[in-house]
From TrEMBL:
It comes from Lactiplantibacillus plantarum WJL. Belongs to the beta sliding clamp family. Pfam families: DNA_pol3_beta, DNA_pol3_beta_2, DNA_pol3_beta_3. Residues 1-126 form the DNA polymerase III beta sliding clamp N-terminal domain. PANTHER family: BETA SLIDING CLAMP, DNA POLYMERASE III SUBUNIT BETA. The keyword Nucleotidyltransferase applies. InterPro entries: DNA_clamp_sf, DNA_polIII_beta, DNA_polIII_beta_C, DNA_polIII_beta_cen, DNA_polIII_beta_N. NCBIfam families: dnan (TIGR00663). The lineage of its organism: Bacteria, Bacillati, Bacillota, Bacilli, Lactobacillales. It comes from the Bacteria. This is Beta sliding clamp.
Amino acid sequence: MKFTINRSAFIKELNNVQRAISSKTTIPILTGLKLDVNTDAITLTGSDADISIETTIPASDDNNTLVVEDAGSIVLPARFFSEIVKKLPEDTMTVNVVDGFQTQITSGAASFTINGLDPENYPHLPEIDTTNTITLAGDVLKELIGQTVIAVSNQESRPILTGVHFILANGEFLAVATDSHRLSQRRIKLPEANNANYDVIIPGKSLTELSRMIGDNNPDVQMRLSENQVLFVLGNTSFYSRLLEGNYPDTSRLIPKESNTTVEISAPALSAAIERASLLSHESRNNVVRFSVNPTDKTITIFGNSPDVGEVTEQLQPTDLSGDELEISFNPDYMKEALRSFGQAMIKISFTMALRPFTLVPTEEGENFIQLITPVRTF
């Protein structure tokens, strides 16, 4: 096996594949990067058994300046190989399997020889039916992941909550995540997928890595499903993830249908105020911010304190406020993450009672995006 390639083009694809490679895996060969070299392309594969990423570098793209002398396959230690490639002196590099699995990497006057592994021992990627395909706009999928993955649980005691619940039915795509303290739900219309029906739970960690790979040059992402795997195709890159097994809780009943107090306010303005209040609340043992709504003078007051440091009070004028007087306490970190997911939008916050969950929705198209936060009892 021998090829020469533009180093920058190779590093770009290597960085993507490395997202799936972990040094902590119990299967030693999965700490390696698999290279499959054909006359017209190189395929790089990385996996940690939960996530697998495969990307192809075609010789037909002139930017790659790929020249293949001998086809073949090898598995190389990912960490060492990556560090070597990134520190090579010239714009091009040559990789050559010289003796058994010994591999020589040369660039200019620099030459490294590292020990590879038998590619026959590398696990095969899952077979996924290509007829079951949904196409999503890359920017929409990236935004959807960012808005929902913040609410997945980090606790392995309830593994099902560490994923995002994806439901596709009747031309609507619904994504829901909850850690039992907060919930995020996003709905997208997909009329072209009117006949598709899916109900799967994808690990939040997988979606976070996928989101980082979706760039401006990926206008569309294809999503394909099998019984226990999902495949996302982004151009020349395939991203596989296992699915979580089990039944996701029915979250629709958690969202209040009515409210007694509503506040409309700019998400960035409220986020900045919560950020300031949390400077002191983070020094307190319970990390709570108090939020008071006064319908009489149409103001809201945000209060944070730490017995050891001091306290902060800030009053805001929302664009609209109606309903009953209310005082409610919540975790400011949950609130900040929820507000960040709305970007620059105006939002409507709906409260029922001081100890009942409250919702945040954008004032436009509020039925398609909901953040829900459970308050904290402070007495």
